Amino acid sequence: MGGAVVDEGPTGIKAPDGGWGWAVLFGCFVVTGFSYAFPKAVSVFFKELMREFGIGYSDTAWISSILLAMLYGTGPLCSVCVNRFGCRPVMLAGGLLASLGMVAASFCRSIIQLYLTTGVITGLGLALNFQPSLIMLNRYFNKRRPVANGLAAAGSPVFLCALSPLGQLLQDHYGWRGGFLILGGLLLNCCVCAALMRPLEAPRPGSGPETQRPARRLLDLSVFRDRGFVIYAVAASIMVLGLFVPPVFVVSYAKDLGVPDTQAAFLLTVLGFIDIFARPTAGFITGLKKVRPYSVYLFSFSMFFNGFTDLTGSTASDYGGLVVFCIFFGISYGMVGALQFEVLMAIVGTQKFSSAIGLVLLLEAIAVLIGPPSGGKLLDATHVYQYVFVLAGAEVVASSLVLLLGNFFCIRKRPEAAAEEEERHKPPADVRVDSREVEHFLKAEPEKNGEVVHTPETSV
């Protein structure tokens, strides 16, 4: 599976950490908002879909699951497309597909047709936008990358705050068909974001020594040799089993308690509003010099906090309790959203990130596909929402333990071993080192193509 990367970015260029990168950050903000908010926002249409098609909770939950599964499961396909055609063309095609899927969904006459249009076509379009936008963000930011990731991830709650009440408003005035049609038009904004993804320019031929770009594979499977990557992928796959379940069911939970539809949809707005501030804050804290080397532990804590919130939120029995749950869930969910791709970038670096994120998303796709429907099956069998929240919380807590223990026992070097390794690589005392060679090494290695040097703690 060979071939040169078209939009890989020059190997000798340093991440600008600003400039046009802010435009790229804005585009990533919008794309992330659509990608993650859409599967949750369509849940406000579930009650109407259940009445029209005569289906249950698990059947409607498949819509969000297929959307998320396409977003995750097509990761390798997106990696190959980006490495073959570049980020901008792939995102343009994705924006058109996402819009086409929702427009076609407004004419559907069965739930199966909705699975194909809203789930498969729109999901594929969002995937072709989401992954390339993260790749471009990784190329444009290095030192400010944690903050940039936090700001880009804030697009999800911002759009959730807007799309959830907007979806309810559209349903009240135009029905679910008119709502889907208008949402399809809004997704064309992804094409505008694609136009912002300008590739980094290579240095001019006369400005320095010419570096020949090595041939690269369209999908680099060597990342599986990295133990840190494997542990991260396993933990993330377990996490997404339960991560997206509460936002999908919390609106229906409130409606079953007798809460008016508009007030129930407001729960997602509360969750999203808290999430807006949680993500940039988590990104800022992670970017601190003393905190960044231990970002994996902060990520593990975020996962544990999210799972614990699900477990305690299962005791909510009225609208006030659900509001409190959404507040704490928004904080923990925002922390997870801001840190998940920052930690992955720290594991594999810039050069392998496009392949690594595709493979991680593929591994998570199966978990995403069975997560909400399994919660729906449990709900249909028991008619008790508390069990759904307990199951989701237990899965997320388990993932945090996998990441924490895997990093602590399998990755982190012991002080004695690190000292011995440093001693083995220490040059003999009688060897003189040319200062020009030292200067060349320091300039060439630490920030090659915007890639930072990682400590053992940031290896997972």
From TrEMBL:
List the Pfam families.
Answer: MFS_1
Q: Where in the cell is it found?
A: Basolateral cell membrane
Q: Which domain of life is it from?
A: Eukaryota
Query: Gene Ontology cellular component?
Result: basolateral plasma membrane
Q: Where are the transmembrane segments?
A: 20-42, 62-82, 89-107, 113-135, 147-166, 178-197, 229-252, 264-282, 294-313, 319-341, 353-372, 384-405
Q: Does the keyword Oxidoreductase apply?
A: no
Keyword Cytoplasm tagged:
no
Cite the Major facilitator superfamily (MFS) profile domain residue spans from the record.
21-418
One GO molecular function term? lactate:proton symporter activity
What keywords are assigned to this protein? Cell membrane, Membrane, Symport, Transmembrane, Transmembrane helix, Transport
Q: Give the bilayer topology.
A: Multi-pass membrane protein
Checking PROSITE patterns in the record gives: MFS (PS50850)
> Which family would the database say this protein is a member of?
Belongs to the major facilitator superfamily. Monocarboxylate porter (TC 2.A.1.13) family.
Task: Please give the name of this protein.
Answer: MOT4 protein
Species of origin reads Crocuta crocuta (Spotted hyena)
The beginning of the lineage is:
Eukaryota, Metazoa, Chordata, Craniata, Vertebrata
**Which gene holds the coding sequence for this protein?**
Slc16a3
